[in-house]
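Quick check before the chapter quiz. The format below is the same one you will see on the exam, so make sure you can read both the input and the output lines.
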Amino acid sequence: MPRVPAGLWKNVIAVQVYGANTGVGKTVFSTILGAHFLKKTGRTNWKLRYVKPVSTGPASEADDGYVKKYAGVPVSTLFQYSEAVSPHIAARDGKPPSDGSVIWALHQYLNNESGRLNRVEREMGINIVETAGGPLSPGPSGTPQVDLFRPLRLPVVLVGDHRLGGISSTISAAESLILRGYDINAVVCFNDNGKYKNSEYLLQHFDKWNIAAFELPWIPDLEGCTTTEETKLMRDYYKEQSRIDSVHRVAERIISCHSQRLEELESMGARTQKAIWHPFTQHKSLLDKDDILVFDSAYGDYFQTKYNKKSRLGSDATDAMLYPAFDGSASWWTQGLGHGNPQLALAAAHAAGRYGHVMFAGATHEPAITLAERLLKGMKNYRLTKCFFTDDGSTAAEVGIKMALRASCKRYEWDGSSEDVGILGLKGSYHGDTIGAMDASEPCVYNKKVDWYRGRGYWLDFPSVKMKKGRWVIEAPTGMEEEFGPAEYFDSLTDIFDVKKRAHSPRYEQYITSTLDRLVKKQGRKFGALVMEPVLLGAGGMLFVDPLFQRTLVQVVRSYQFAELAPLPSSNAWTGLPVMFDEVFTGLYRLGHFSAASLLDTCPDISIHAKLLTGGLLPLSATLASSSIFQAFYGDDKADALLHGHSYTAHPIGCHVANISLQTMDSLNMSAQTWSGFRKDWRDNHGETKLTINPFRTTSGDHRVWSFWSKRMVVDLSHHPRVDHVIAIGSVLAISLKDQSGSGYTSNAAAGLRDALLYEALPGETRIHSRVLGNVIYFMASMTAGPGFLRDVEKALLRHLGGPPHPVFKRVELGNDSEQGQEIERSAEENVEQRREGAD
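Here is the expected output.
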């Protein structure tokens, strides 16, 4: 969705008038409300405007002319079509404006009105924004209006349907708005002289929802009237209605809701300081309430964030309260399909209505079994056959570690309760913050001060992948060139991931084997599992592991003799140690593929998933396991079972949302349009190289390695004097900044850039909310992010780094894919000015 601020100003109240259906009196109500505010007296000087974003039908019959005639207020229409049909039909003969153009034009109109007000004379603006038809009526592009205008999140007055059947349509319209996060300030319904008594029922109904509802008199009977008589009757009607108590209370309700929203935004920082203990936060650093970001809402790839004293408005002369900030961390890596996704919201509502929550022990329900089958099928792993549900990545890791340790101890006849059985992993790994998951990582800033932490295992060094000076390189850790070999350069990531072509590395095999010999044979240590994040170690600092090293590590561990061999139950049984892949961060298309394991051309015995599983909407995780792991818990004694779970195991709302999320991402992956541009951008100069990966292959070219971030920009970053190296794969972009005092989590090298990206944007420039891992600043996009929006993010990033201008950032007409180029903004602004000049 486009980068447009939500519509909230200190000195302008913009209220959006929706109708439960067409013909219910939206324009009548808008006229009454406008006439009321023109007559309103008091200390405030009200400046009123009426705007119709999209209108269809002859200009002589347009709603803006009607409102101007009877209310006498300035009016504007932003997009006018002569044919009296639905906007998506009316716009079909020409090129319909994109959704971004429509809402950008509306926001610019409202923002300009804020800039025109005279603060000295206590002017306040009232802008009545009237939609066309009902909430789900389509806009010019075909997008339902309730979704089209959602990024602005204007407060709503819903005009109910007073006709036969209107109760149903009114309640349905209200539910559609609520599902999408709108605030309904009021519901108004015209009476029908007692025929259907819709308003009587609706007032009681909405009172139960704590939504203010009001009844207004309907227009006089105009049958048989001449034009002159009709005009007089209607002028008298509007004059009278503008003064009645119901209209006064609606107006006061609108003003009150606006004031309350402003007060809530202003107080949230201070209230948070008093009541909230934040995660991953040293509260001594939060010295002021403005150190806390206040989010009013979020939509698409953007947070709607409150301005504070740190936010620089630049040349913006309005009293705008909110600005959009690109969600650069994908909300701690969870966002897959964008904030406020209406499809996911509807799926959650459906499952909540169908099930609420049902317990899962010894039972089942359709969303859970469908999700389990979908995950197992998507992994395309002949080993994985069972799915165990938990609530987040850390608990999924706890379950996986329990599974692996039980399987090892049972096969090797170890007593894990009295013997020290650890895990093998990689340095810099991270598997969560619960006690067991922490113990599976080496001592680090996340766990070393936790009193129960023991660090039960051994973590191997590894060679890493990075781009430096425009070239991909695999480097050994400093001082370990003898173990891993000298730096090795590659033309592309595809070549690095072609692990079969690279065959094997004797150095890797020797390092791993000698390490195991020292630990197992010389020191007598016991290990119950190999646990690692495939390809990319997230919280450890976005460490990109050489895929050949990880593949080799799996092969060596599976062939190594950790204890006296016992007979294997089947040919698919685990060998050596159970291999567990933590795909909480890297899985489910984060790196461009359903499973990051597919990039290693190997199959784990246990695989854990969360984060993107529900598209960022709900907490849910899954631990997948092989049959031989499952058999370790199979027996006559209940105590031998996997006695793990929680009250919301496999909660049906999360499972149903996950099914919709995965189905959507599968469609994006298979579509010829959605990600093809990104893939084409990363195509190697020598053509469409395909990796020879068998167990996981799905479609032609599916296993090319590519990124959402532009290849040219990544290359430019790698040459930047402030940058040590950069990585880009799938939706992930990570930049390691040079720090003379040393890298790592305690480095502050990236903090200044993080703050500048959010607080020091130029007028019109994308603001970016990001997170840092020491000297590493990283960015992620949702799976639905368009190239135009990401190029805007890249442009802002390069400017703050001090990078040179680049051809990729030359503005062109980006079309409906981006909805955000200067061409769109200019055309929308011109449209607004032309309509305003005509109206004034």
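If your answer matched, good. The radius of gyration is 30 Å.
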